[in-house]
Amino acid sequence: MRLLKAVLAVMLTLLPLAASTQLVAQPLQRGPNNIAASLVAESPAPAPGSTVDLAFAMTPKSGWHGYWLNPGDAGLGMTLTWNLPRGVSAGELRYPVPETLIIAGLMNHVFEGAYAPLVALTIDPSLAPGARLPISVKADWLACTDEICVPESATLSTSLIVGDGATSKDTRARFDGWRQRLPAPLGSKATYQLDGKILRIAVPYPAAGDIEAPYFFASTERAVRYSAPQAFFRDGDRLIIETEASGALAGPLAGVLRIGEHLGLELVADKGAVAPGGTRIDAAAADEPEGGMLALLAAALGGALLGGLLLNIMPCVFPILSLKAISLAKAGGDERGARRDALAYTAGIVLVCVALGGLLLILRAGGEQIGWAFQLQDPRIILGLLLLVTTISFNLAGLFEFGSISAGSSLIGRGGAAGSFWTGALAAFVATPCTGPFMAAAMGSALVLPVPAALLVFAGLGLGLALPFLAIGFIPALRHRLPRPGAWMGTFRSIMAVPMFLTGLALVWLLGQQTGNTGVLFGLAAAMLLALLLWWLGARQKAGRSGWLPLAPALASAVAAVLLLPTGGSAASPGTSAGATLPAQPFSEAKLAQLRAAGTPVFAYFTADWCITCKANEAAAIQREATAAAFSKAGVVVLEGDWTRRDAAISRYLEAQGRSGVPLYVWYKPGSDPVILPQVLTVETLTELVG
């Protein structure tokens, strides 16, 4: 059937050219291909028992296009003939989300720019390291313009060597960019109904989810009339597609739903009842696209404000809030000073939140698969925070004073607006990785909003975090409830050094999770050297001498430690250890799909060593005897996604669930849609899933 379509396409394009004297000038069969193709491997050294992606990097000349799996009314997708060594097998070709192109009334599903279908190669576990794997494939495709079509082919080859699966950072980023254009699995079943010639498809889709230029590409051949118009309706948490069927459908209907530029969802619809209704959102409603976007922005902004406000009671924020508690107590009855400090504190928080959000958007636009709290996935940032917390801890403990060090080196310890600003900046930098209630959905929505609206959401998060101190600064009745300044403040300051030291210990542990024992020893040595220099600084201050002399080597040692930190150590392996109360397997989408296909109940949770909310939930609800017993009795398989260090696969999964950070808990019950659980768990919440 596809070959017949290709022949038809060539004949249709030749008819208007037959009368043209320019026909002989067209390069139909000679010369280089009009769509250049190359075969690229993500890793030149795949490990035994692993899979490695191969990309067919296709680059059409200007004005030319290639075709999707189901080309539509005319055209031909790519066909492959493999020549593989023993122990290597190739999976199915995975296409990016295509585009629509209408020529002479025929609907074509095409790629008009550079595109890259992917194939997964499976390497047999029995292959020995060092074995050479010559890969060869003959690829055939159709290249077309609006006027002519040319069948093209190429024999592409590459050579792999069985190794450790290593790949370069640039190659990984390139493949992540290609994978970003693949349709994401819908994760739940759609339903379709035939009503005469009208085909109606109901797709589960969140009411607040963004969608732009929707279109349904049917991969099931001869299921729809490709050139027929498509209408889209929003009806609560489902999207209704109406179009014209091509013939009688009996089995499942598969296809890809485009939800934005290069974004799509891969779905399978079973036959069932689909009632018409909802609000039309396609061309008929194109005159008012701002309404849905404004509603999404309002929901995201409200969630960010509430999420930021709740961050003030999260455990990860308390050590930083202790600094501000001392500052507010010192403000006493100075109303003007309290307002100034509150505004400065707010400015520090909001600017850091916007800066982190802006950097996140820039990196994602460049192809990086990262999410909110990405700064704590770099061990050098962790070491920098460790040294900063060490400095603050010893200052609170009375080892030295910020006050006698001149401007520029006493950002957090300075009084007045400057000190409040930098305290707020530090609070935002450390506190934002804690994803609390309301915040996860807001941060996920920010990633699909236009850049100005997304930055407004990030600013809303900072404003929510600063709201309690704004209230204290501007409401005298609240401020008067603070204790009066006095001798107690010295004792309080020393007590507040304790949570800061505990934060330092947590950062040392996190550094070990990311870099192994080598990184821990390096971090402890750097912290001890810094503490020694701070002790020298305190001794000079007590003797009435300048603090500049020890300050220079202290700053130099901190900067050198961050730059020289060895990041290639043997970090802790992801996944819960076998001796845990509730053992877990490392998360992968392939493993999840395998378990769901077998009808196995799955509890998937996504965590990070720097996420205190995650660790609190694990201690209070997940790693409990009652939970383990209930899950074992029901045959539940637990999958753990460790996001401590950057993991593009987990980032993609989080984004598909409308999240940009952890924690995330998803329950997969056989035969039912996935359920996203609350971000604060109890044993009862989990045991009731299998009750």
Automatic annotation (TrEMBL):
Recorded superkingdom: Bacteria
Protein's recorded name: Thiol:disulfide interchange protein
Membrane-spanning parts: 293-321, 342-361, 381-400, 421-447, 453-478, 490-512, 518-536, 548-566
Thioredoxin domain boundaries: 553-691
Keyword annotations from UniProtKB, A to Z: Membrane, Signal, Transmembrane, Transmembrane helix
Organism: Blastomonas fulva
Record-linked Pfam families: DsbD_N, Thioredoxin_7
Signal peptide coordinates: 1-25
